[in-house]
Specification:
mainly alpha, Arc Repressor Mutant, subunit A, 2 domains, three-stranded antiparallel sheet, 3 strands, 68% helix, elongated, WH_Rok, Repressor of comK, Rok_N_oligomerisation
Length: 168
C-alpha cells in the first residue's frame, strides 16, 4: 500500500524528469535560434555558443549588434531624423508635426489620415499613438492644416507658400 510519503516522493521524481526534459527542449531551441542568427549574420559576428560564454554575454553582444544595425538603418531611412543629442531636446510631437507638415506639403490635393500616419512614421521612425489627437493638436498649432472631408487632411491654399518657404 502506498502511503502519502511514497506518493510525494514519486511525484517529485516525476517533476524532476519533466523539468530535465523541458530544460533540454529549451536548450535545443536556443541552439537553433543561435544557429539561425549566425546564418543571418553571415560573418558569424555573434560570439560562438560554448561553455565559456554566459547567456548574459551573449545577450549583451546581441543587443550591441542590434543597436549598431538600428543606428545605421535610422540614419539611412530618412534625412529628417536628428542625431541623438538634438533629439533629446525635442519632443516626439514636435518631430511628428514637422514631418506631417512636410508630407502635407508634398500632397497638394490632400491625403487620407491613415496614409499620412504611415508616411509620418516612415519619415520619423517613431509611432503615433493616437492619430486623431495628434492631428487635432497639429491643426491647433498650424491653422493652415485643414480637414476638408472625413479622414482627409491638406494644407490650405493661402498657407502653402508660407510652408514651402519654411522648409527651404
Amino acid at each position: 500500500m502506498f502511503n502519502e510519503r511514497d506518493a510525494l516522493r514519486l511525484r517529485l521524481e516525476q517533476l524532476n524528469h519533466t523539468e530535465i526534459t523541458v530544460i533540454r527542449e529549451f536548450q535545443k531551441e536556443r541552439n537553433q535560434i543561435y544557429a539561425k542568427l549566425r546564418e543571418l549574420d553571415g560573418a558569424n559576428q555573434l560570439p560562438s555558443v560554448n561553455k565559456k560564454s554566459s547567456l548574459i554575454e551573449l545577450a549583451s553582444a546581441t543587443a550591441q549588434k542590434f543597436k549598431e544595425v538600428n543606428k545605421h538603418s535610422r540614419t539611412e531611412k530618412s534625412s529628417f531624423m536628428l542625431n541623438t543629442k538634438e533629439q533629446i531636446h525635442r519632443s516626439k510631437t514636435s518631430i511628428h508635426r514637422e514631418a506631417a507638415l512636410k508630407v502635407l506639403n508634398t500632397y497638394k490635393e490632400g491625403i487620407r489620415g491613415t496614409d499620412l500616419r504611415v508616411e509620418i512614421e516612415k519619415e520619423t521612425g517613431i509611432p503615433i499613438m493616437n492619430m486623431t489627437t495628434f492631428m487635432q493638436g497639429l491643426m491647433k498649432h498650424h491653422p493652415e492644416v485643414k480637414k476638408p472631408d472625413r479622414g482627409r487632411y491638406k494644407l490650405s491654399k493661402e498657407q502653402e507658400l508660407i510652408s514651402e518657404k519654411s522648409f527651404k
